[in-house]
């Protein structure tokens, strides 16, 4: 039987509707949430992600400023821009698109963002709070995955969850959120990575399999359990259409795996729209917090 499709696009649209209403309520109090996005270099995938973030912000009534810096921008120039955004009262959230060029220290840059404006949840203060289960900005893709599961009626409590990938952006934080003692957590989590001895042994045990490895179609049908729920975070550009549009593939062999599992996210239209939506959620939250409005 064909799997149920977990349509991130539709779930994201529902959340964005709620956010647009929240933005309107803030506007009645003369508060406009503001987001600054910073892109260094001209990587086409990053350009497209940042463009989509600004477009969505605009559609929701969030003020957004897009800073596009050339690839050879110095670290000091970038830090100076972040500092000016930290001090700008019209900006509540700052996003520095990753990855950064090799000559810039990611850790120095992320640590320079005011934690109260760190809508990506990448500042060490927010990472620490997340680990401790304290109130903080949650990183957008992991938070989006938790919301996808919750709004699709997939219970994480007691579930065997296997995460493939240990990046700071997805693998590590999503594993962390899933072990928290609260709704959307309470799972038993296994984290697999490039040094895992027998990947299939672990993935076959998963009630919920989350794949964020960046390797096209690495999860084949024989690596999943019948009836599992599969969340595919991969966005791999495997070619180009005649009109020049990127052809995308996930980390999961969708055609084969979808015949066996209970539910699966498509690529595109699965996790991607959720990432952008949770960024908007965090930006609205940042504007509320600075204005002492209940979240
Ligand atoms: N690169 C890939 N995903 C992300 C993300 O969620 N935030 C930022 N800033 N960069 C990314």
Mean pLDDT across residues = 97
CATH topology grouping of the largest domain: Rossmann fold
Assembly level = single chain
Q: List each distinct ligand once.
A: guanine
**Helical proportion, percent range:** 25-40%
**Fourth-level CATH superfamily of the largest domain:** NAD(P)-binding Rossmann-like Domain
Number of helices: 10
Shape, principal axes of CA atoms: globular
How are the secondary structure elements laid out?
Layout: E1 4-5, H1 8-27, E2 34-40, H2 44-60, E3 63-69, H3 75-87, E4 93-96, H4 106-112, H5 124-132, H6 140-151, E5 160-164, H7 171-178, E6 188-192, H8 199-203, E7 208-211, E8 229-232, E9 236-240, E10 246-249, H9 254-257, E11 263-264, H10 271-290
Parallel strand pairs: 1-11, 2-3, 2-4, 5-6, 5-7, 7-8, 8-11
Antiparallel strand pairs: 9-10
Helix pairs in contact: 1-10, 2-10, 6-7, 6-10
Bound molecules: guanine (GUN).
What does this structure look like?
By secondary structure, the chain is α/β, with parallel strands linked by helices. It has two domains: 32-120, 3-Layer(aba) Sandwich (Rossmann fold), CATH 3.40.50; 140-273, NAD(P)-binding Rossmann-like Domain (Rossmann fold, 3-Layer(aba) Sandwich). Helices cover 39% and strands 17% of the residues. The chain contains ten helices and eleven strands. It has helices at 8-27, 44-60, 75-87, 106-112, 124-132, 140-151, 171-178, 199-203, 254-257, 271-290; strands at 4-5, 34-40, 63-69, 93-96, 160-164, 188-192, 208-211, 229-232, 236-240, 246-249, 263-264. It has a six-stranded parallel sheet. Strands 3-2-4 form a three-stranded parallel sheet, sandwiched between helices. It has a two-stranded antiparallel ribbon with strand order 9-10. Strand 9 (236-240) and strand 10 form a beta hairpin. The termini are far apart. The mean pLDDT is 97. Bound molecules: guanine.
